[in-house]
Amino acid sequence: MSATRFRTTLVALxxxxxxxxxxxxxxxxxxxxxxxxxxRTEQRNRMRAARTExxxxxxxxxxxxxxxxxxxxxxxxxxxxxxxxxxAGAGRGPGAGRNRP
Length: 101
Known about the structure:
Blueprint: H1 3-24, E1 28-29, H2 31-34, H3 37-49, H4 53-73, E2 77-78
Parallel strand pairs: 1-2
Helix pairs in contact: 3-4
């Protein structure tokens, strides 16, 4: 078998394998990728208006359910919610690591 034919066959096999792997596993997306700019703004405003952590948790759960349904309709999988990370943390900006009320 010539080197060119071998390379062509190898590339064809790799492409076929990659295609079957992509078809076997649905794409994973974040809720942010599924939302319009208006939906993100509305979600942000609802979260800011919530008075308690329980209200914010309910808003997050409702949004996650809605985005899970949207992802499923598109043949995608929504990333799971991380209960340990309910929002932005200290980050690296000014004041990072300071205890602020």
